[in-house]
Amino acid sequence: HPRCLSNKIKISEPTRHVVLIPPILTKPNFTPPPQNLNQPPTMGVVEEAHNVKILGSGHRTIVLAHGFGTDQSVWKHLVPHLVEDYKVVLYDNMGAGTTNPEYFDFERYATLEGYAYDVIGILEELRVSSCIFVGHSVSAMIGAVASITRPDLFSKIVMISASPRYLNDVDYFGGFEREDLDQLFEAIQSNFKAWCSGFAPLAIGGDMDSVSVQEFSRTLFNMRPDIALSVAQTIFQSDMRELLCHVLVPCHIIQSMKDLAVPVVVSEYLHQNLGGESIVEVMSTEGHLPQLSSPDVVVPVLLRHIRCDIAV
After folding, report:
1. Catalytic site residue 246?
2. Where does the record locate the signal sequence feature (predicted)?
């Protein structure tokens, strides 16, 4: 594949925290979901739990990982453009409305490491030796965490609408104050359906009549309310900044010009602090789920970043 993406943003040497020992992820205890002994196992336990689907028959593997409140259907506009040239792996994060809520371990998924080990587990079960990982929102960070433990499994990570921290901090603008998050969690807890109806158009950047808002509302409301609250708390209170320097695989950072959850400066922050090569592309789109709301703009951009490497 040609190395055809020039790194247009100059990388200045960022000030980094001194980390004497690279963070080592502790593998959480995980009891796999029980198998139905009356039927022969046609797919692995991890595959089945995550509704893994494999499409296409190319030599290179692409993994598409969705974000909060969606499932693998969020990739419906992109998949048809990939299946002729790649083997495409789709899966659902545990906690998505399409997964069995009984398999959701609140302790395991209180940190992103639990999800990262799911990704590694899926790749190992499928015997994928290396993949292009396309992660939306929290899954971009999940892929990054997984790549620290198993860099051999990732040839590159394409990050869409990604953030290492949502809370503002000293010398860091994540977009949210603590009061904002408290109100968010309270709204989810008090009336989940009403919150979904209000949050979907804000996240998408459209009105309730748009197809993409209706689609996001559907997948969001499919989540069990207590699981949705737990996942939202894990995501919005996460802070992955000190891990970024340990992410050594190439990262392609893509985001909308206007995003409720991720200010543009966050993409610049990722670019400056990731440990490996990275490139940023800010699209003229609006919303946190541009692959769903603006596929005509986003799909060509994603295909370019998937097919081309960063020119060093």
Report:
1. no
2. none
Number of domains in the chain: 1
Q: Taking Cα atoms as reference points, which of 167, 93, 194, 95 lies closest to residue 135?
A: 93
- Whether 40 maps to a domain, the answer reads no
Candidate list 163, 259, 267, 271, residue with the active-site label: 259
- Tokens matching residue 209: 């009549």
Rounded CA separation 179/149 (Å): 34
Is residue 50 among the annotated active site residues? no
Structural domain includes residue 19? no
Are 112 and 68 contacting, i.e. CB atoms less than 8 angstroms apart? Answer: no
pTM for the complete prediction?
0.87
Considering the domain boundaries, does residue 163 fall inside one?
yes
Tell me the H-state helices in 39-177: 45-49, 112-125, 138-149
The active-site residue, picked from 288, 293, 294, 305, is: 288
Give tens-digit pLDDT for 45-100.
888 999 999 999 889 999 999 999 999 999 999 999 999 999 999 999 999 999 99
